Structures are given as structure tokens and as C-alpha cells.
């Protein structure tokens, strides 16, 4: 049975180290061949929009756009339904490859056989 990793990031520029850690772990897991699902919630929701990851900077951290691109290329990126609605973000606004889904989908992924869920 293959393992999968579900990473929920709740922080954005408001908690840059926690945010960068989540993206780094997700991208590293993708590079290691793990099935990865990255969930953008709370302030990280803004990174589902074009150009927003480029505005993020943290010394000694890989550039957020590179980490996000890696996850988009080899895994899944999901924007929380409620988080999108609160920020008036629609499907038409999103980066290519990002989907909007809710708690039921998160729970399904997190509880799947062989899944490991991490929340940052």
C-alpha cells in the first residue's frame, strides 16, 4: 500500500515560517515520489491566486513559487471552499491546477488508507 501525505497550511504571510515549512514539506514529499495533497486554508488561501506566492519572502527558505509549482506539477493543491468564499475567490481566479473543495473532501483524503495528515 502506497502512503500519501495530506498537508493543510493555515498560515500565510501572517506566520511566514509555519507557511514555508508546510510548502517545503509538501514539495519535498512530491520530490520523493509521495502522493501529496496540499490544502490552502486561512491566510494561505491567497497563494491560490496568480502572483501571490511571488510576494512571499522568507530568508533561508526556498522561494514559495518554486515550492508551489513543484506541488502543482506532482501533486494536488486545493483551496478550502469556505476560505475562498470569505475572500471572494472563485474558480475563475485560481492558478491553473488548483481546485476548490470543502471539509468532506479533506476528511476523505486525510482518513484514506495509508494517509498521513499534517497541519501547519
Properties at a glance:
alpha/beta, about 120 residues, 4 helices, globular, about 20% strand, 5-stranded parallel sheet
Give a written overview of the molecule:
This protein has helices at residues 16-31, 64-74, 81-86, 103-110; strands spanning 4-9, 35-40, 76-80, 98-101, 115-119. It has 120 residues and is α/β, with parallel strands linked by helices. Strands 4-3-2-1-5 form a five-stranded parallel β-sheet. 38% of the residues are buried.
Strand-helix topology:
Blueprint: E1 4-9, H1 16-31, E2 35-40, H2 64-74, E3 76-80, H3 81-86, E4 98-101, H4 103-110, E5 115-119
Parallel strand pairs: 1-2, 1-5, 2-3, 3-4
For the biggest β-sheet, the strand order reads 4-3-2-1-5
Quaternary structure: single chain
**Can you count the helices?**
4
**Portion in beta strands:** 15-25%
Rg from alpha-carbon coordinates: 13 Å
**Based on DSSP secondary structure assignment, what is the total number of beta strands?**
5
Summarize the structure.
Helices cover 34% and strands 22% of the residues. It has 4 helices and 5 strands, in the order E-H-E-H-E-H-E-H-E.
